[in-house]
Structures are given as structure tokens and as C-alpha cells.
Amino acid sequence: RIGQRPLWAQSLELPEPAMQPLPAGAFLEEVAEETPAQPESEPKVLDPEEDLLCIAKTFSYLRESGWYWGSITASEARQHLQKMPEGTFLVRDSTHPSYLFTLSVKTTRGPTNVRIEYADSSFRLDSNCLSRPRILAFPDVVSLVQHYVASCAADPRSDSPDPAPTPALPTPKEDVPGDPALP
């Protein structure tokens, strides 16, 4: 069903989630220092066991991250991010059946959602076909998020000379008492 984790992932226990701020400009297109994904000369043989291990590892890392909120909806994510500082983000289960996760981020224009694509044992931010070759791929979602956090913290275009602090934020249960939709 929409808004629920896949059956094989429902038994995973999740820690209390926390939202983390990103520096301003977190997801602006990076210029050219990163190497774009190279097309492979031979088609890769798909290995379901490798995919399962990769996805299981990602869920394990996300559980420990503190910013994985599980099966909340885009509307619930928007509600929580609306009152947070710019750059605050969370990772949640995607409600789209073709994607496992969505990154929800508070931007200067308000909260927005970016699907995280999984293919060939790698995760990348979803994008249109023209920019896809420039989007980097990562072995897990935590590495993807850490890359963009680090690149934004070092970005000279950022409004602040220092990376945004990581405030202690309330857990969703404190934020919305008794809301059964939250993990």
C-alpha cells in the first residue's frame, strides 16, 4: 500500500528519527569537479542477491542515521519541515511504487521532495534524462546524503561561511503527540 514500507522491511525496528539541517544551496547542481557516471561498455548482469544485500545494508545504515522517518507521507514531511530552518532534511519511504526512498528538504522556497533512485546496486537522486549522466551514484543512501551535506558545507556559494549547526530537534512523537502515522 501507499505510505507503507515493503513487507520484507516492516519488521525492522527504527530509532527515534531526527531532522538534520543542510547548508544553504544543498542541492544546487554541482559544476564539474565530480566525475560523471560513465556508461558501461558491457551490460551489467543483474544479481538479485546483491540487490537484496545492498538494500538491507542501506536500511541498516538509515536506522542508525537518525534522519530516517520511515513511512510518513509527503504531506507529513512537509508539515514537519515547514517550521524547521532551511537545509533541514529527512529521508522517508517513497510513496511511489518505483522508488524505495525520498529525500525531503526544506529549501528557500519551502519543503520539497526528491526521489532517490535505485539501480545497479547504487542510489542516486532522481533527475530528468538530460542531467542523469551528471548525477553521482552511491552504494547506500547514507553515503549519498553525506556527500551532498559535505559538498554544501564546502560550497563557496553558501550564504554562511560556517556549516549550519546541527540543533537538537524534537522527535516526531514530541512534535505531534499521539500521531500513529509516525514511527
**How much beta, percentage-wise?**
5-15%
Structural class: alpha+beta
Counting DSSP E segments of at least 2 residues, the number of strands comes to 4
Largest sheet: 4 strands, antiparallel
Average predicted confidence as pLDDT = 72
Number of domains: 1
GO cellular component, one term: phosphatidylinositol 3-kinase complex
GO molecular function: 1-phosphatidylinositol-3-kinase regulator activity
Domain SH2: 67-148
Protein name: Cytokine inducible SH2-containing protein
Structural notes for this entry:
The protein has 183 residues and is of the alpha+beta class. It has one domain: SHC Adaptor Protein, CATH 3.30.505. 24% of the residues lie in helices and 14% in strands. The chain has 4 helices and 4 strands; from the N terminus they run ααββββαα. It has helices spanning 48-65, 74-82, 141-153, 172-175; strands spanning 89-93, 101-107, 110-119, 122-125. Strands 1-2-3-4 form a 4-stranded antiparallel β-sheet.
Supply database-style keywords.
183 residues; alpha+beta; SHC Adaptor Protein; four-stranded antiparallel β-sheet; globular; disordered N terminus; disordered C terminus
